[in-house]
Amino acid sequence: MRLALLVCMAVAAIQPALARTGEDQVIAALGKRLFPVVAAMDRAGVPSEVRSMLEQRDRRLATCADDAPCKVNVSLWSNSEIELVSAMAAADGPSAENRDRANAAHRELLGLNTILDVYGRGSAPRYPRIDGPIGEQDRVRIAEDCVVAAAIAEAGRDEAPAGFDFSIGLALALLDVNERLDAIAFQPLDGGLNSDAFQHARGLDWSRYRYTSIIVLGAGPKDLLTPLSARGKLHVKIAAQRYFSGLAPFIIVSGAAVHPRGTRFVEAVEMRRALIERYAVPAHAIVIEPHARHTTTNLRNSARLLMSMKAPMDRDALVLSDPPHIDAVQSAEFVERNQRELGYQPGRVGARTSPFDIVFRPSAASAKVDPLDPLDP
Fold first, then answer.
1. Gyration radius of the chain over CA positions
2. If you ran DSSP here, which 8-state letter would residue 120 be given?
3. What are the pLDDT digits (tens) for 221-256?
């Protein structure tokens, strides 16, 4: 009885705050994650030329009335508009911090355009096998979702993420109606399923181990009902063997809900479950990296996690996957792909230690903000 009373009191304490704001906390979190610079801009304090540009955008939007596709089209940012906002972001002077802020604003608006183009207009994404609207890929479905997203954006025009420009709320709503909330899942990464590992890392003597971690690359199944693919099971088995041989203090399992498109199973989470349930690997030895959708970001995001855990960056990690995948990691094509998609190398690939493993020295460059992939933080 006392517990029920406490629960009721807690709910009553929360309800007034929700009633006062009525704002979507998921959309707010997604806005901060994907557009941290632009979504935080204060429209009231912008220079006159930026204000004029925003007012022109408002007038174009008003001509659309209730035409959702029109709203998507006029919400796209032109190169000149992007440059104007980027210049404003660095208006306080030529410092490195201001340059970074300007570059971030530029990337965010390009990423926003990508969301509008792919999820609002049905254009082909960079990786059509895993990206794009979830569900039937026909114009009717995309058009219906566009109408709903536009209505959600209109209802949230006065909310914080969209305060600077309507396009921000529209892009976020398009991701929402397509269930693409990947960017805010499992946050913060040093908590939740990773809390034991991060706690363990604080008092760790890293010098006791040959490698800082065993980075296990995900492999999605071929259907929507299978949690862990056959290749994933192979990766997990070998990772457990490597861990119990004492090679590294941690296994980093890397992979998002990627293959096949529309899956609800996160590769990292399913590999973690198998390591614990099938091989009795302790939870404090497993770190999930649940956001990577490509091999490039498997390595980049794992490097970022190691930095967050205060692992020594002058030490190697071991990357583990099936032999054809490791062949790809070892190839010159992978170096070129990193440069093209990330703009740098997330680390240096070293010697092949077995058909399943290759040495990897993470790079501090992985801490940089990359050319924006809206769904890949």
1. 23
2. I
3. 989 999 999 999 999 999 999 999 999 999 999 999
Q: How far apart are CA 317 and CA 212, in angstroms?
A: 5
* pTM (2 d.p.): 0.83
d(CA 330, CA 350): 8
Is 309 within 8 Å of 203 (Cβ atoms)?
A: no
Within 10 Å of residue 262's Cβ, how many Cβ atoms?
13
Strands 286-289 and 251-254: parallel
Pairing of strands 317-320, 214-217: parallel
Whole-number Å distance between alpha carbons of 345 and 229: 29
Q: Where are the beta strands (DSSP E) in the chain?
A: 214-217, 251-254, 286-289, 317-320, 347-354, 357-362
- 357-362/347-354 β-pairing: antiparallel
Amino acid (one-letter) located at 167: S
**Is the predicted pLDDT of residue 60 greater than 60, yes or no?**
yes
| Residues in Cβ contact with 166 at an 8 Å cutoff, skipping those fewer than 6 apart | 57, 58, 61, 71, 75, 153, 157
* Amino acid, res. 25: Q
Tokens (6 digits) for 173: 């709503």
Give the separation between CA 240 and CA 39, rounded to whole angstroms.
Answer: 43
Taking the C-alpha atoms of residue 313 and residue 23, their distance in angstroms, rounded to an integer, is: 42
Residue 287, φ and ψ in degrees, nearest 5:
-120, 125
Q: Which of 280, 287, 292, 279 is nearest to 220 (CA)?
A: 292
Find tokens 């709320």 and name the residue. 169
Q: Characterize 104-137 residue by residue with b for buried, 16 or more Cβ atoms within 10 angstroms of its Cβ, and e for exposed.
A: bbbbbbebbbbbbbbbbebeebeeeebbbbbeee
* Residue 25 main-chain phi, psi, to 5 deg: -70, -30
Give per-residue pLDDT as tens, 161-173.
Answer: 889 999 999 999 9
Q: How many CB atoms lie within 10 A of CB 4?
A: 8
Report the alpha-carbon distance of residue 307 to residue 369 in Å, rounded. Answer: 15
Amino acid identity for residue 2 in this structure: R
Map residue 186 onto helix, strand or coil.
Answer: coil
